[in-house]
Amino acid sequence: MTSNEVLAMYENIAALSSRMAVAAREGDWDGLARLETQCALQSSAAKSGVPPLDGAARKRKIDLLKQIMANDRAVRDITEPWMGQLDRALSPAH
Questions:
Q1: pTM exceeds 0.70
Q2: Pfam families recorded for this chain (predicted)?
Q3: How many CB atoms lie within 10 A of CB 50?
């Protein structure tokens, strides 16, 4: 994997994670699930490892990772309370 391919992968993941945050805010759970699948496919290339980056490419990768993490937090802020409500609704009454 070249440095350009690494950055392209992170660019794609950042764009997908941004769309995931929008889908979560809009309550589009089917769309969110589809985007999660696409994101997993994009990130599967990193499982075999990515080469270290230097200089501007390294800084760009860090910026993209920060965006991805912020988008992930936005999705979790919406979905975690909802999942807790769902768990309570589905649990047997005491």
A1: yes
A2: FliT
A3: 17
